[in-house]
Amino acid sequence: MTESDKPRRAGIKRVPRPQLLDPNQRYTLAETHAVLGQSHVKTFRDIKRGVLQTIKDGRPFGWS
Length: 64
Hints:
By secondary structure, the chain is mainly α. The chain is 28% helix and 0% strand.
């Protein structure tokens, strides 16, 4: 069964892994999951524990 023949689960976005990681580059959460090879739950836990640093890009939540 090739990659294109495998059934895809709804809601999962495939993101290609970057070849080289740049510490000064911003990565989306989907890219972070792919690079680290871990689930989104593990990534969010690492953010909460302070293992991963985040930067908010955009206006604060709740503004209209």
